[in-house]
Amino acid sequence: MRAASEARHGIRRRWVPAARATGIVGARWASASLARTEMKLPEPPYYAVIFGSLRTPVDAEAYAAAAERMVELAAQQPGYLGAMSARGADGFGITVSYWASEADIARWKAHAEHVVARERGRRDWYEAYTLQVARVERAYGWQAAKERYQGSTE
User: pTM for the full model?
Assistant: First the structure.
């Protein structure tokens, strides 16, 4: 069903390398532990929702479960294209989710379960957060060939 809708709207997909980073402390990206994932995004334009947050130490287990549920739920929404996320040991994190339209973003913001999670986040899990919505006009990426690291002892 999604493929038919994308074809109707002229959305062409291409593979873009993405990383889900953990262990990032502040802006010291060199200390990051990266796990490779792939995200399929259409050719621009599309939209990016950039969510930066500073976590509290409150109920990390419940937060992790809610965050996982929000990713699962977002992936079921019309117009959802993918997401990538990073969080440091200091509690600072960034999640970028990608959407086909601003209307899709507005529907996700208004989704009842997302509203409840957002309210709990404000009450318990976040010390502060920022959110920006940006239109992606150009996108490209690079990924080293897997063979490059075969036989490496590091």
Answer: 0.71
